[in-house]
Amino acid sequence: MLSESEILELKKFCQENRRNIVKMVYNAQSGHIGGSLSAVEIMTVLFHKCMHLVPKWDKDKNFANRDRFVLSKGHVSPVYYCNLAQMGYFPENELMTFRKLGSKLQGHPATFCPGVDAATGSLGQGLAIACGMAMGLKLDKNPAKVFVLMGDGELQEGSVWEAFMDAPSRNLDNLIAIIDRNRLQIDGCTEDIKPLDNLPAKIRAFNWNVIEIDGHDLNQIYDAIELAKNSNRPTAIIANTIKGKGVSFMENNAGWHGKAPKKEDYERAMEELK
Fold it and tell me: What is the pTM of this model?
């Protein structure tokens, strides 16, 4: 359970991240804003409170024992970069180079960006990458954990379910998958396109530990991740979220999946995120 002071601090970081996400996508006039906003609380708690992070330049700590992170839904890189900047991997003013030619902050994360462990973008691949990382850590007897953030739309890819089947067979209890269950994808509602429910039961059938939470509740996110760290099986955290969370006209609106705000949209969003 987080303390009141920790919650206040995390809320401040979340609001800062939401403002920066809107600024980045507006400045680039390109990017994925809806899914970035839905994952703000998940990513902020994960990076600020739950992951063991070791910057590569920190010679006093064991870089090899850091926790790994894979952004399977690579298109929501804005929320990833915001947290990396807050954790000191690069200056915050670099966020405004997002999607610019020559920038480290490309539309999908690449490993030349400080803090990025895996290049992602093609949906449905991240869980398999994370399985490989987790298996490698096991072979090295390394205590680090592997976290992967997935979208619910990408769960329609067959490769995801191969990875769900593989992880328990290899006893990957060091693997934690977090599913951003905002129920929207580029074409509309996930349940209208290729229904996923009953999602918890489906994943449990593959012998995973499953925890379902409110993906905007800071305490629930923190408690679920800390519980998952001590599981004797791979864990999937299904985080129920709202796409576009925090900006009223973007919330639960699939049209804001990958659209950049116009000037009037930007000004209205920033006013709401004061």
Answer: 0.97
